[in-house]
Design a protein that fits this description.
DHBP synthase; four-stranded parallel β-sheet; 9 helices; 327 residues; 28% helix
C-alpha cells in the first residue's frame, strides 16, 4: 500500500455535487456527520459496498448504517412502525439509528450482513444532508477508519487512517470541520415488540425512554441482536496503546485522560467543567493525541455512567478490552 491518501476538499456546493456524482458512479466518499466522519457508498451497489468492507478491513458480518435524507426516505428503505415513527419525530435528523425490517430490496444484502433488517438514520450535519439530497440514493456509511480503530472526528483523521483511492480508499474527503457530537449514533432495534438498545450514543437513553418507555437490552430472547448493529464487537474504537480505566493516577509511562475539575493540571481533560457533551465531543480526538510516544499506555479517569456518559463509557470499555485491569 502506498502512503497516498484521498484529497481533502472543503465542503461547498461544487465539491458536494462532485461527491454525489462519484457515489452514484460506485465510488467512495468520506464525509462529515454530527457524530463522526463516515465512509459512504451507494447502498444499492454491492460492488461499492464490498469496497467499503475491503478499505476498512471490516468483517462482512458487521452490518453498516444506511443514511437517508429524511423520514420519508427511511420509510422507503425500511418499515417504520409506530415506535419508529415516534422516535423519528423526536430525534431525526440527529444521532439516532433505528433497526427495522427492510423494505427496499435494492439495498445490498452486504449492508445488513444478510439479515432481513436495516439500520437506518437521518443525519443532521448540513454537509451530510446536502450530499444525500444531491445523490438521491441511500448511502451506507460506517465510520471512516480502519475496523476496530479510533473513529475520526475531523477530516485529517480520515486522511491518516485510510488509504487513498489507488489502494481502495475514498476518492474524496469532504471537510466539514470537527464533528459536534463526537461519538457514534445511538442504535435502537425497533423490529421487536419492545425496542432494544443495541448501542448507546449521541441521543441519551434517558431521552429515548422518555419518548417510548423502557428499552430492553440484547439477550438470548432477541437472538442475533448484536449482529444487527455496528459497534457491538468486544474490542472496538481502540487506539494502538493499551487503555486502563477508572484510574486515580498514572503509572510509569502512562498518559492521563482526565475528566472534571478534580483532574490533575497536567492531564488532558475531556471536560474541566464535567460537561458530558463536551467530553463526548473531545473523546476520540484526545485519545488520538495521547496514542503514541512518549507514552506507553493511557490511563482514563472515571466518567459518570449517565446521559452521554453511557456512550463515552461504552467506547472506553470496548477500546480497553483485553487491556490491563483498572486500579
Amino acid at each position: 500500500m502506498t502512503n497516498d491518501h484521498a484529497p481533502i476538499v472543503t465542503a461547498d456546493s461544487a465539491s458536494i455535487a462532485a461527491a454525489a456524482k462519484c457515489l452514484k458512479a460506485g465510488g467512495l466518499i468520506a464525509f462529515p456527520t454530527e457524530t463522526v466522519y463516515g465512509l459512504g457508498a451507494d447502498a444499492t451497489n454491492a460492488d461499492a459496498i464490498a469496497r467499503v468492507f475491503a478499505a476498512k478491513q471490516r468483517p462482512t458480518f458487521n452490518p453498516l448504517i444506511v443514511h437517508v435524507k429524511d423520514t420519508a426516505a427511511a420509510n422507503a428503505a425500511g418499515h417504520l412502525n409506530d415506535t419508529a415513527r415516534t422516535l423519528a419525530d423526536a430525534f431525526w435528523p440527529g444521532p439516532l439509528t433505528l433497526v427495522m425490517p427492510r423494505k427496499d430490496e435494492r439495498v445490498s444484502l452486504l449492508v445488513s450482513a444478510g439479515l432481513d433488517t436495516l439500520a437506518i438514520r437521518v443525519p443532521a450535519h448540513p454537509v451530510a444532508q446536502a450530499l444525500l439530497n444531491d445523490a438521491a440514493i441511500p448511502v451506507a456509511a460506517p465510520s471512516a477508519n480502519m475496523a476496530g480503530c479510533i473513529s475520526p472526528t475531523a477530516a485529517g483523521h480520515v486522511a491518516v487512517g485510510l488509504p487513498g483511492a489507488k489502494d481502495g480508499g475514498p476518492e474524496m474527503i469532504l471537510d466539514g470541520g470537527p464533528c459536534d457530537v463526537g461519538v457514534e449514533s445511538t442504535v435502537v432495534d425497533v423490529s421487536t415488540d419492545t425496542p432494544v438498545l443495541l448501542r448507546p450514543g449521541g441521543v441519551t437513553v434517558e431521552d429515548i425512554e422518555a419518548a417510548v418507555g423502557p428499552l430492553a437490552l440484547p439477550t438470548a430472547a432477541n437472538a442475533n441482536a448484536a449482529n444487527k448493529s455496528p459497534g457491538m464487537m468486544d474490542r472496538h474504537y481502540a487506539p494502538g496503546l493499551p487503555i486502563r480505566l477508572d484510574a486515580s493516577g498514572t503509572r510509569p509511562g502512562e498518559a492521563l485522560l482526565g475528566f472534571g475539575p478534580d483532574a490533575p493540571a497536567d492531564a488532558m481533560n475531556l471536560s474541566p467543567s464535567a460537561d458530558l457533551g463536551e467530553a463526548a465531543a473531545n473523546l476520540f480526538s484526545m485519545i488520538r493525541t495521547l496514542d503514541g510516544p512518549p507514552f506507553k499506555a493511557i490511563a482514563v479517569m472515571a466518567v459518570p455512567d449517565r446521559g452521554l456518559g453511557r456512550a463515552i463509557n461504552d467506547r472506553l470499555r470496548r477500546a480497553a478490552h483485553s487491556s490491563e485491569g483498572a486500579s
